[in-house]
Amino acid sequence: MTIKPDPNAEIPAELGNVHFVGIGGSGMSGIARLFLGDGHRVTGSDVRDSDNIAALRALGAEIAIGHDAANLRDDVDTVVVTGALWQDNPEYRLALERGLPVLHRSQALAALIAGRRLVSIAGAHGKTTSTGMIITGLLALGADPSFVNGGVIEELGTSAASGRGELFVVEADESDGSFLLYDTSVALVTNVDPDHLDHYGSLEAFEQAFVDFADRAREFVAISSDDSGAKRVAARLSHQRVMTFGEAADATVRVHDIETDGPVSFAIDFEGAEYRATLRIPGRHNAINAAGAFTVLVGLGFDPAASLDGIARFAGTGRRFELHGTVGGVSVYDDYAHHPTEVAAALAAARTVVGDGRIIAVHQPHLYSRTRLFAKEFAEVLERYADETVVLDVYGAREDPEPGVTGALVSERFADPSHVAFISDWQQAADHTARIARDGDFVVTLGCGDVYRIVPQLIGSLERERG
C-alpha cells in the first residue's frame, strides 16, 4: 500500500532540516527547491539520478541514489514523502520509529504557502499547461509570483521559484485528495473528467472533492463551461463568485474562432470586448487552457489585453509534446498524456502540425487499475488519432500488478489489429517503430511513467534503420 496524506496531521511551526524521500519527481523537486530558497538544509533520496537531482545538488541539496535507512541522518527534523512511495520504504519506516514529523509533499508545500495569496489549479487534464500559462502571464504583467508547477516551464528552465510578489501559484493534485489541504484564494478547475477512481471509489466522491475544493476558495472560482463533469460541479457550488470559461455561449470568458493549423489562434470575448491571440504551442485544447488562465488573471484584476499577450508568450513545459530529435525526417516527441482524453488532445495537436506525415504513438499504460478501467477508451482514441500504435507494458507506479492486466488489454481492443503492436521489450519496440517509420512521420511517446526513457532507444533505432 502506498502512503496517503493525513489531512489531520499536525504541521510543526518550524520544519528545520528537511529530508525528501523521492526527491527527484517534478513536484517533489520543485518543493525542495523552495525549501532551499527559504534557507532550510535539504537532504533526500531517489531511485535514480536525473536532471532534477543535478539541479538540486547545484543549489546545495545532499541527495543519495537508492532508498536506504542510512540516508536518514540523525539531525533530520522533518521528513517529506510523496504518495508514490510504498509504506515499507526504509526511510519512511525509520522516520516513524524516530517519531519525526512525516509530511506528505502537499502538507510541506502548505507550510511554505501559509499566509500567501494562493492560486490553485486543479483538474483531470491541463493543470501543468494552465499553471505555466498563468505564471508566464503574471511575469509578463510585472508580478513576481512564487510557484510550483508539475513540469519545467520552457522559457524559465524551472518548475518552481520563490518570488517577491504576494501571489503563490501551484498545480494542485487531486489524485489523492491533497488539493483540499491548501488554503486557496483562487481556484481554477480545468475539467472534471473521471480519473483516480481507485482512490475515490466512485464518480460521485470524485466530483464532490472538486466541489469542496472550489467552494473553499476565499476569492473566486474559475471553472470550465464546457466539460460535463465541471458543469455538474459548478451546479453544486455555493460560492458567491464563479467565473466560467470555454466555448459555451453564456461563458464569462468565451473562446471562439479557434484555428488549429499550426500554433493555435483564437478569439476571446470578455465583458463586451474581443481579444485575439496566437499561441506558441499547437492544439485546440490549449486555446481552452489559455481561456482558463485568462479568466484567472482578469479575475485578479489585471488588464485583459495585457493578460492575453502575456499568456501568449508561454512556450510549453517539459514532457508536453516535447521534441527530442529528428532522424532521417522522422521526429521524436514525448508527452505526459496518460488518460484517454489527454491522449486524444496530444495526438490531435500533433495532427495539426505533422503535415503529410503520419503519427506513430508509443503508448505506455499507467496504473493497472486505469488500464483495466479504460482499455477500450485508450484503444479507441489511439486508433482514431494515430496511424500506427506500439503499446508497451503497464507502468504500475504505486499499484501491485493485477493478474491479466497488461498492455495487451489495450492492443486487443483495436478494431483493426494491423495498425497496433503490443511489444513489452523496449528495444524490440524501438526497432519495430524505426522499421515502420517514414519520412515526415512523428513518433510520440505517451504516458506519465518512465516512457520518456525509451526516447534514446527510439532515436538509436532510427539512426540504425535510416542512417
From TrEMBL:
GO cellular component entries: cytoplasm
EC class: ligase
Keyword vocabulary terms for this entry: ATP-binding, Cell cycle, Cell division, Cell shape, Cell wall biogenesis/degradation, Cytoplasm, Ligase, Nucleotide-binding, Peptidoglycan synthesis
EC number: 6.3.2.8
Top-rank lineage group of the source organism: Bacteria
InterPro entries: Mur-like_cat_sf, Mur_ligase_C, Mur_ligase_C_dom_sf, Mur_ligase_cen, Mur_ligase_N, MurCDEF_pg_biosynth, UDP-N-AcMur_Ala_ligase_MurC
Record field: catalytic activity: UDP-N-acetyl-alpha-D-muramate + L-alanine + ATP = UDP-N-acetyl-alpha-D-muramoyl-L-alanine + ADP + phosphate + H(+)
Domain Mur ligase N-terminal catalytic: 18-116
One example GO MF annotation: ATP binding
Subcellular location: Cytoplasm
Pathway assignment: Cell wall biogenesis; peptidoglycan biosynthesis
Protein name, per record: UDP-N-acetylmuramate--L-alanine ligase
